[in-house]
Write a structure and sequence with these properties.
The chain is an alpha/beta fold and 451 residues long. The chain has three domains: 10-152, Alpha-D-Glucose-1,6-Bisphosphate, Chain A, domain 3, CATH 3.40.120; 159-368, Alpha-D-Glucose-1,6-Bisphosphate, Chain A, domain 3, CATH 3.40.120; 374-449, Alpha-D-phosphohexomutase, C-terminal domain (TATA-Binding Protein). Helices cover 38% and strands 20% of the residues. It has 14 helices and 18 strands. The strands form four sheets. Strands 1-5-4-2-3-6 form a six-stranded mixed sheet, with helices on both faces. Helix 1 packs across helix 2 (54-68) and helix 8 packs across helix 11. The protein is globular and about 65 Å long. The model has no long low-confidence stretch (mean pLDDT 95).
Length: 451
């Protein structure tokens, strides 16, 4: 088990848990490991979201990189997928995103991307951790002309905008559709509008006035009521909601009803499959995806592959087998023909394109799969005990009994959070009230035994 890195980088409360000292060490160790593997002084891109702590964390990160002789190109506020794309396009050695994604503003985080625009492998993260906690770190000091140089390159955002105009060109020209956009007061607050304007898509936007502390606050993909109400009040055709760092996208139809990641994946998979553009006619999802998505795939002769939770595992399966579409129920969807990470803006544009091609309302298009009721609750446990639920006989027995009861008519999934002191409990079945009751009982047991 890694000490600092979770399933999505390092994520903690800024300036108390994610301290400048810790950030400095993460950067300095990272620069050393990158230099070791590339055999030269690395060049690293840094982007961040709109959190008040962003510049603090970036300053410490930059200092750590420069102190070992790495060079830094700061991109300013930039969506996570933009950093991934630019790292690859600019032939940088690595990219870093400073963001806590969908979490509230007091959190912040660090994600490393490789020169291929993908999250760095687990073994590299482990190597960085080993250097961080070694005596070696204090000796890794650049001197004289070996000290790194930092530059500001906020103009690189234009290349990300051009990325979309190259893909979609005239797909939305003269389209009679108006989209509601909720940018979560986050990293897409400015660039999403620029892209929609450039492509000629009519839109209305909300939650696009970040002030450092309102990121994800009652807005964005974790709070769909905001965009749902906005779509209904303004009689819009579709609503799009991004998360704080812009790698996820969820939607609502013209009636304000949610369109989650599973539905979006089904819509895009169908469109690609019909055009013979779905590699090996296969869709990759995680074990958290709704049973309805699996049944849809089976009924439509689409191969359905599931991985453990985490977009890195979805991507690994896609790369290993040559698939080009995969993702998570949360709206983190990877379209590997374009970008090797989840891209909320790309996902939303693919969804809009699919709706336009079908010449139907969003609600009709979204009726593609039957979504089974699903309850997801969190058990608050001791951080050091969150992986111990399988060892406890009473917990194991309760889980086994539920799995037997729901066999064929639903699912039970228990997993520790990769970033928080929580164990996630998901139960899927036909009766929402019954599965909610069972999920609450299991959460109570987990909290009792793992405190």
């Amino acid at each position: 088990m890694r000490k600092y890195f979770g399933t999505d980088g390092i994520r903690r409360i800024a300036n108390t848990e994610l301290t400048p000292d810790l950030v400095f060490r993460v950067a300095k160790a990272g620069a050393y490991v990158l230099a070791k593997h590339t055999n030269h002084a690395p060049t690293i891109l840094i982007g961040r979201d709109t959190r008040i702590s962003g510049t603090l964390i970036e300053s410490a990160m930059t200092a750590g990189f420069l102190s070992y002789g790495a060079n830094v190109k700061s991109l300013g506020v930039m969506p996570t997928p933009a950093v991934a794309y630019l790292t690859r396009k600019m032939n940088a050695d690595a990219g870093v995103v400073i963001s806590a994604s969908h979490n509230t503003y007091e959190f912040n985080g660090i994600k490393y991307f490789s020169n291929q625009g993908m999250k760095i492998p687990d073994d590299i993260e482990k190597e960085i951790e080993e250097v961080m906690d070694s005596n070696k770190l204090s000796t890794l000091t650049a001197v004289n002309d070996k000290i790194g140089i930092a530059e500001m390159h906020t103009e690189y955002i234009e290349q990300y905008v051009q990325f979309f105009t190259d893909i979609f060109k005239t797909d939305f020209k003269n389209s009679e559709i108006t989209i509601g956009i909720d940018t979560a007061n986050g990293a897409t607050s400015q660039v999403a509008e620029t892209i929609f304007k450039r492509l000629g898509i009519a839109y209305k936007v909300i939650a696009n006035q970040p002030n450092g502390i309102n990121i994800n606050e009652n807005c964005g993909s974790t709070y769909l009521k905001n965009i749902s109400d906005f779509v209904k009040e303004n009689h819009l055709d579709l609503g799009i909601a991004y998360d704080g760092d812009g790698d996820r996208c969820l939607a609502v139809d013209e009636n304000g009803n949610p369109i989650d990641g599973d539905i979006i994946m089904a819509i895009i998979a169908e469109c690609l499959s019909q055009k013979e553009q779905l590699n090996q006619n296969t869709l990759v999802a995680t074990v958290m995806s709704n049973l309805g998505l699996k049944k849809y795939a089976e009924e439509n002769q689409i191969q359905f592959v599931q991985t453990k939770v985490g977009d890195r595992y979805v991507l690994a399966e896609m790369l290993n087998k040559g698939y080009n579409l995969g993702g998570e129920q949360s709206g983190h969807i990877i379209l590997l023909d374009y970008n090797p990470t989840g891209d909320g803006i790309l996902t939303s544009l693919m969804l809009i394109k699919a709706i336009l091609e079908k010449k139907k309302k969003a609600s009709q298009v979204a009726n593609i799969i039957h979504i089974y009721p699903q309850v997801l609750l969190n058990a608050n446990v001791a951080s050091e005990k969150k992986y111990d639920y399988e060892k406890d006989k009473e917990i194991a027995k309760a889980i086994q009994e539920l799995e037997t009861e729901f066999s064929g008519r639903g699912r039970v999934l228990i997993r520790p959070s990769g970033t928080e002191p929580k164990v996630r409990v998901m139960i899927e079945g036909e009766d929402i009230h019954y599965i909610t009751k069972k999920a609450k009982q299991l959460v109570a047991l987990l909290e009792k035994k793992l405190k």
